Amino acid sequence: MLKSKYSLPTRGAGFVVLISFIYSLAGTISIPVFSLYIESLVGEPAYVGYFMSLIYFMILVYILISTYFLRNFNKITILRFSMLGSGIGFLLLTIVNNAFQLLIIEIFRALFIALNFIVIGILIRDGSKKSTISKNEGFYFAIINMSFFIGPIIGGLLADAYSIKIVFLISAIFPLLVFFLLLTKKRKEEKTEASEIKIFDNIKEYFKSKDQTINYIISLGLLSWLAIIYSYMPLYMNQEGLNEKTIGYFLALTVLPLIILEIPISKLSEKTGYRKLFFLGFLLIGIFGILGVVFKNIYLTLLSFVLTNLGVAFVEPLKEAYFFKISKRSDEIKYYPVFKTSSDVGHLTGPLIFSTVLLFTNFKTMFLVASIIMIILGFISLKLKEVKK
Fold it and tell me: Which of 58, 63, 159, 310 has a CA positioned 20 to 30 A from the CA of residue 107?
């Protein structure tokens, strides 16, 4: 167990955070180059968003059917399978020559991403009491964000010195390492209890709750903004003549506000509640995003987008904590996969909207539209029912 004022309180949680950190390095190392890689295959920056939307649509479908896996296999077995598949998927990216081949590989990689996403989230919840969810989620996201600081720097340097395919080769090491670590875990994990699997009924029941619906919209909106940071900013910077190394440094800097603030904000939510913090977070994202549009100097624009993550820090760890705060423990297995689709719906709808704007205008107009949407989400969040410790 990790020794920290904010350490996760029960068995196995420290191990989950460790493997999550290692696994996330695979994705974060490839972040500076993945959208550039897709652009090299599809030809146009706007088409990158459409391709990414298709990938996240597949992840969305897999998340919705993840309950089948949870019911029939224990969680560690699922993680072993998905980590092995993730590593192989990165290796296969090194031999791709066209967009069709990439699509075939992404169909399989999407399944592994979805399973890792769901199972890790449930394992973190298993290691938390209801009174410590906010602190534990803050701790978890702070550790994961360390990989978002380290990974882009490594990926940018590797791509600048060697090639994008070398980046994918190095990325493959990390999920394979987690796979071997999971082989050492001998303790038997229980299967998820789920007497019936009714996907569409669960979706319908989930959205009967106004607060769950608003929280879903909040999560969806935040993830659509992160698509701006991690998918479109590398394309914008490349258009402005900046290299992969600079892109990697920029993406690393965007994570610093998250590393510094997410644990204190998670702890603060136990006293102040969630609603005001959500509102402030989206307001900061929108204001700094608009400033990034106003500035003519590329480096001032980049600084503004780094500062948007001050707002992200107010929302990212709390949206998940809020879900568990307002959910009965008996309902979590039914509704958690539904809630988690919000991330992929955000990754899906965000690029669809943003790429359509980009197709007919330019990057700055797209950034402005996204920033205004974030401010609107801030006002929507004020309609949430408040919950405190």
Answer: 159
CATH number for the domain spanning 314: value is 1.20.1250.20
138-183 per-position pLDDT tens digit:
677 777 878 888 988 999 899 888 888 999 999 999 999 989 888 8
Q: Provide the residue range defining the domain that includes 367.
A: 13-381
Which of 211, 190, 213 has its CA nearest to residue 342?
213
Structure tokens at 279: 């509102």
Backbone Cα Rg of the chain:
20
Which single residue is written with the structure tokens 């705060």? 325
332: number of Cβ within 10 Å: 17
At residue 188, what are phi and psi to the nearest 5 degrees?
A: -70, 130
Q: Is 275 inside any structural domain?
A: yes
Q: How far, in Å, are 55, 106, 110, 213, 360 from residue 48 at the CA level?
A: 11, 14, 17, 29, 15
Q: Considering only CA atoms, which of 388, 57, 387, 340 is closest in space to residue 206?
A: 340
Q: Are 89 and 108 in contact (CB under 8 A)?
A: yes
Residue 8 within a domain = no
Number of structural domains (the chain) is 1
pTM: 0.76
